[in-house]
Design brief:
3-stranded antiparallel sheet; alpha/beta; 193 residues; 5-stranded mixed sheet; single chain
Length: 193
Amino acid sequence: MSANTIAGLPEVFTHADARHAGISDRILYQMRDRGDIDRVARGIYARPKLEADPDLVEIVIRAPNATLCLTSALAYHDLADDIPPSINAALPRSQRPPKTEAPVTWHRFDSDTYDIGRNTTPVTGQLEIGIYNAARTIVDAYRLRHLYGTDQALEALKRWLRIRGNQPVELLDMASSFPKATTAIRSTLETLL
């Protein structure tokens, strides 16, 4: 019964999706209690044994245009050793951050520059989350160094420069859209090179 009941639902679905598919609250909770589905977060469910980070699943369901940034993106790009205690995620300044069970530090970035350097990475077979590329992440680390320190930005830049194929001109080109970071990045590059 349960396999047929959830057959039309995606691998991750919300309470509203289940209701829309004709699954009553009683049946939904019975399925959860039997282990036919797993609770990811309040109102978010998944097929059993979904191999995905539940925190990222919740973030992408609650804020589909969220973008991993700062320390979280630095760690993803192997530009920092620190694993942040909470996930750093950005939203356009015009969007209010949702409430989540996942430990998230929300940042609100200017809508005009929000998509610069933004890519996506898979969370599940059907879900993707935004993530800033390495150059944008370094620019943000310099731009917001008052939050996370100059040392983190400097170490990320040094690591990035050691990666074959990375060119300082690429970083300066990215920084040109963020005037607050350009001078600090240019000065650091002059010192390092």
